[in-house]
C-alpha cells in the first residue's frame, strides 16, 4: 500500500499532547482506506533550544525536504523570545519550503459555540487564502538616530509579483472548485505603493478566470463584514498580515479558535507542506491532559487532502463533527474528558 | 457668550445631507448651554476637484489653521481615485494639523442591533486610540524591476519615537480618567523591527503610569477577542493600520458601523482637531434624504467635549440615545423617517 513519510514535530507544551492524537486518528484513517504512515519524530522545540542553542539542527531543513509532509504541534515556551522560537523554526520552514499559501477554513460546525447571534451551522463556510512567505512579515528595516528623541523606525514590507500572483492564482483556482466567488483584502487608500499593486495584480489575474465573481474590500470594512455578514464569503485572499488577522477573526466568529486548523501549502509539491493547529503551546495547561486535540486532528484531515486522500479526509471530518455534537469533550468545550479520550472517540467514530 | 469658529466641510454625497443636521443639534446645544458657533462653510470636495483640479485651494490649510475645530461630512465620489480625494484633503489635514490621535468610542447603545449574542447594552464600552499621522499609512516605497517578472515592491512604514510616545501618553492619560486599563496591539512575532519597538516604548511609558493596568496583545488575537469578549476592554491603543481595522471591527460588533463617530485630535490644541463620522459619502443613497445623521451628530458631541463643553456633549449623547430607543429612525435602522426628521428629533430631545 501507499506509505507517507511525515516529518513529525510535536514541539512544546500541549503540542506534545495533541500530536499523538492526530497520529492516532490518521493511522486509523490509513487502516480504513488502505495506506500507512511513517512518523519521523523530530524533537525540534524550545526544549531542544535550551540544550542545543538552536531550535533545530543547522541541516534540519535538508533532513526533511524529501518528506511527504510536516505535521507540527506548537512551538513556544515562556522565556524563549519569539524571534528565536518562530524565526528559528516555524517561519524558516514556511519560507524555505515556499509554503506560500496559508489555508484556513472558516466553518460554523454543529455543536460549536459561536459568539454571533442569528447564524446557523452551515451558514458560514469559507476559506482564507493567506500569503505566507513575504509581505508585511519582515525582519528588514532600520532605526535611525537610535537612542535619541529623533529616533525613527523604518520597516519594509516586500511584495513580489511572483509572490502575489501565485497566491492569487491559487485563490482563483480554489474559487473555481468551490462556489466561484473570490474577494481580496487591501488597504489601497492608505498604504499607497504596495496595496494598489495588489489590486492591479488581482484585477489582471481575475481576467483569466471569467467564471469567478470577484470583489475588492478595504481590510477595515472586510473585518466588519466578517462579523456582520460572514455568510457572504467563499474564498478570501489576503496578504500575510491581513490574512493573519482575518484568520483569527474568522475562527473567533465561528467559535473555533481553540480547534482551528491550518495548512501551509507548497501547492506544486516541490517541497513538503506543513499542517498545524492555530492554537499555541499553552504552557498553562500543559501536563494535565486536557488540551483539545481537534485542531491537530483537523489539520491532519487537511494533510490527507493534500496527500490526495480526499475520501479519508472526509471521513476524518465527519468523525470530528460527530464528536463535536455528541462528545466526549475537553474542558474548553464544556466537557470533562481528556485529550486522549477525545482522540480515541474520533478514531472510533470513523 | 463663547463663540466657536468651525471650519465646516460637508464634502460629497450624504456628507451634504448629514452635516446640516449636526449643525442643527449643535446650535441647539449652544442655545441651551450658553455658547454659539460660527459655521464657515467650505466647498472642498470631489465636486470642487472636478471644477478646480484640486480638492481644496493650495492655501486651504492656512485658511483654517486658526479655527477652533473642523467639522467634516464625508469625501469621495465614484471615479475620483482615493489618492486624490483622500491624500488631497483628509490625510493632509490629519497630518499637517498633527491630529495624531484618532479616537473611536466603541459602545453598545440601547436600541442598536448588535450581531453578537449574549451582550447587553452597557456591557461594551471602550475606546480605540489609533495613531493617525504616520506608521503603515505611507506613500513611501519603490517598485524594483518594474514591468518584469522580477517586479518587487517595497513599502515603507515609518514610526517615530515622538509619534509613538505621544500616542501612548494620550492613551495612558485617558485610561487614568476611565477604568485604568490599557492594552496595546502589535505583531512583534512577525513584523520584526517596528513592532518590538512599539512594545518597548509602551513598556517604558507604562512605568510612568503605575495606576494603569496594561496588557499587550498580538493584533490577530486582539481582533478575535473583540468578538469573543469585548467587555474586557477599556482603552485600546494601536498603530494607524491596526487601529483602522480594530475601529471598524469594534463598530461592527456593537452594530454601530453606520452611526459611529470619530475624532481626529491634536490634543494640545496647537492646531484644530477634526470631527467626522466613520461612514463614507454613500453616493448610492445620496439625494433621497434617508442618510442616518447620527454619526455626524455623535461626532459633534465629541467636538463639544474637545471644546470644553462637556455638559453640552453629554446632553447631545443623551438625546441620541433617547432617539435610538424611541425613534424616529432612518431606513438603515429599520425606520422610514428622513435625515431631517431624525436630526430634528435629537435637537428636540435635548
Ligand atoms: C478613508 C480612509 C483613508 C480612512 C482611514 O483608513 O484612515 C478611513 O477608513 C478611516 O478610518 O477614517
Ligand atoms: C506565531 C505567529 C508568527 C503566526 C503568524 O502570525 O503567522 C501565527 O499567528 C499564525 O497565524 O500561524
Helices and strands of chain A, in order, run as: EHEHHEHEEEEHEHEHEHEEHHH
Bound molecules: 3-isopropylmalic acid
Radius of gyration of chain A: 20 Å
Strand content of chain A: 15-25%
CATH-defined fold name of the largest domain in chain A: Isopropylmalate Dehydrogenase
Biggest interface, and residues per chain? A-B, 62 and 62 residues
> What is the CATH architecture assignment of the largest domain in chain A?
3-Layer(aba) Sandwich
Give an overview of the whole structure.
The structure is a homodimer of 350-residue chains. The first copy, chain A, has two domains: 1-99 and 268-350, Isopropylmalate Dehydrogenase (3-Layer(aba) Sandwich), CATH 3.40.718; 100-265, Isopropylmalate Dehydrogenase. In chain A, 41% of the residues lie in helices and 22% in strands. Chain A is built from eleven helices and twelve strands. Chain A has helices at 15-33, 46-52, 60-64, 82-96, 161-177, 194-206, 219-228, 240-253, 294-307, 310-326, 339-349, and strands at 2-11, 35-41, 69-74, 101-107, 125-131, 141-144, 152-160, 181-186, 213-218, 235-238, 261-265, 273-277. In chain A, the strands form two sheets. In chain A, strands 2-1-3-12-11-4-5-10-8-9 form a ten-stranded mixed sheet, sandwiched between helices. In chain A, a hairpin with a 7-residue loop joins strand 6 (141-144) and strand 7 (152-160). In chain A, helix 1 packs across helix 9 (294-307), helix 7 (219-228) packs parallel to helix 8 and helix 9 runs antiparallel to helix 10. The mean pLDDT of chain A is 96. At the A-B interface, helix 4, strand 6, strand 7, helix 6 and helix 7 of A face helix 4, strand 6, strand 7, helix 6 and helix 7 of B. Strand 7 of chain A pairs antiparallel with strand 7 of chain B. The structure holds 3-isopropylmalic acid (2 copies).
Amino acid at each position: 500500500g501507499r506509505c507517507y513519510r511525515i516529518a513529525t514535530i510535536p514541539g512544546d507544551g500541549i503540542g506534545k499532547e495533541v500530536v499523538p492524537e492526530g497520529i492516532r486518528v490518521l493511522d486509523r484513517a490509513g487502516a480504513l482506506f488502505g495506506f500507512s504512515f511513517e512518523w519521523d519524530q523530530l524533537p525540534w522545540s524550545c526544549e531542544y533550544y535550551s540544550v542545543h542553542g538552536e531550535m533545530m539542527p543547522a541541516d534540519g531543513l535538508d533532513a526533511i525536504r524529501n518528506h511527504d509532509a510536516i505535521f507540527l504541534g506548537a512551538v513556544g515556551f515562556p522565556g524563549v523570545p519569539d524571534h528565536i522560537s518562530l524565526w528559528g523554526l516555524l517561519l524558516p520552514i514556511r519560507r524555505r519550503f515556499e509554503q506560500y499559501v496559508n489555508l484556513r477554513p472558516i466553518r460554523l460546525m454543529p455543536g460549536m459555540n459561536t459568539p454571533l447571534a442569528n447564524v446557523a451551522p452551515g451558514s458560514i463556510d469559507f476559506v482564507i487564502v493567506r500569503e505566507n512567505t513575504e509581505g508585511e512579515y519582515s525582519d528588514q528595516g532600520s532605526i535611525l538616530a537610535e537612542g535619541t528623541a529623533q529616533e525613527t523606525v523604518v520597516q519594509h514590507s516586500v511584495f513580489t509579483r511572483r509572490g502575489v500572483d501565485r497566491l492569487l492564482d491559487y485563490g482563483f483556482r480554489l474559487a473555481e472548485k468551490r462556489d466561484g466567488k473570490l474577494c481580496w483584502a487591501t488597504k489601497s487608500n492608505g498604504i499607497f505603493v504596495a496595496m494598489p499593486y495588489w489590486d492591479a495584480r488581482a484585477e489582471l489575474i481575475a481576467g483569466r478566470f471569467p467564471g469567478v465573481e470577484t470583489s475588492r474590500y478595504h481590510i477595515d470594512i472586510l473585518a466588519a463584514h466578517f462579523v456582520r455578514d460572514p455568510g457572504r464569503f467563499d474564498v478570501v485572499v489576503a496578504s500575510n498580515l491581513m490574512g493573519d488577522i482575518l484568520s483569527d477573526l474568522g475562527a473567533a466568529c465561528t467559535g473555533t479558535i481553540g480547534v482551528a486548523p491550518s495548512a501551509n501549502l507548497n501547492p506544486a509539491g516541490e517541497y513538503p507542506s506543513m499542517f498545524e493547529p492555530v492554537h499555541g503551546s499553552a504552557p498553562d495547561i500543559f501536563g494535565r491532559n486536557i488540551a483539545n486535540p481537534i485542531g491537530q486532528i483537523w489539520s491532519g484531515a487537511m494533510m490527507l487532502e493534500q496527500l490526495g486522500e480526499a475520501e479519508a479526509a472526509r471521513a476524518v471530518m465527519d468523525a470530528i463533527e460527530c464528536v463535536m455534537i455528541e462528545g466526549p469533550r475537553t474542558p474548553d468545550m464544556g466537557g470533562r474528558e481528556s485529550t486522549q479520550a477525545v482522540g480515541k472517540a474520533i478514531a472510533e467514530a470513523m
